[in-house]
Amino acid sequence: GAVVSQHPSRVICKSGTSVKIECRSLDFQATTMFWYRQFPKQSLMLMATSNEGSKATYEQGVEKDKFLINHASLTLSTLTVTSAHPEDSSFYICSARVRGEEQYFGPGTRLTVT
Amino acid sequence: GENVEQHPSTLSVQEGDSAVIKCTYSDSASNYFPWYKQELGKRPQLIIDIRSNVGEKKDQRIAVTLNKTAKHFSLHITETQPEDSAVYFCAARGQAGTALIFGKGTTLSVSS
Fold it and tell me: pLDDT category, A100, cuts 50, 70, 90?
């Protein structure tokens, strides 16, 4: 099956700094990747849709200047959390759809902002 | 856009009993409905899915039913085991190419 990786798996940063999370499709090309955020004991909330070679589409309420998404190649999408604050602490999960309907998920990145 | 409601939020059953989780969706154009199992700190794992041209699908102890007219779908787990304990999410996809939208999740606890 399709494999999606994320790096790092865990990151701790100080308030005000920026953090970059990478999402890679290892054995397929992903023209579209999705970024979700999951707070403790809550559901996966779609943040944005990342399209290779074009600007990301953000969901309502998600600040595009705070959560910078870049999808520069068919195998890599990055999410940069700029000027992170403690309320940005969350589990960030990327996913990609190959052919058909199934959506494959990365292992997630646990972000803690102190 | 799509909105998915999921019930119940928590479900406790005895080992061997059946468990049923129900979801409703809002977008009549939605045509793909997967169910995921998520363990703490892990990625969601697809356990079964159904497409809008099918009313029911079964895989061993797990089954999913879909009622397009009523816009709801359900997950059925029979002969539950302690290892079935996890958080289960339903999801729906509207237009082709769009992302999955998730329900709020159900925490299933199976006691032996």
Answer: low
Note the pLDDT tens digit of each residue in B73-94: 999 999 999 999 999 999 999 8
Which residues of chain A make contact with B105, given a CB cutoff of 8 A?
42-43
Instruction: Tell me the sheet residues that pair with A69.
Output: A79
pLDDT of res. A4: 95
Chain A residues with CB-CB distance to B97 below 8 A: 32, 97
Beta-carbon contacts below 8 Å between A and B: 46
- Structure tokens belonging to residue A64: 């595009």
**Does the beta carbon of A3 lie under 8 angstroms from any beta carbon of chain B?**
no
**B70 pLDDT more than 90:** yes
Nearest Cα neighbor of B105 from B93, B86, B89, B92 is B89
Residue among B51, B100, B105 whose CB faces A103 most closely: B100
Q: Is A42 on the interface with B (CB under 8 A)?
A: yes
B54 in contact with chain A, both atoms CB, cutoff 8 A: no
The pLDDT value given to residue B55: 93
For A86, counting Cβ atoms within 10 Å of its Cβ (0-12 exposed, 13-18 middle, 19+ buried), the class is: exposed
Q: Distance of alpha carbon A42 from its chain centroid, rounded?
A: 17
> How far is Cα A51 from Cα A70, in angstroms, rounded to an integer?
8
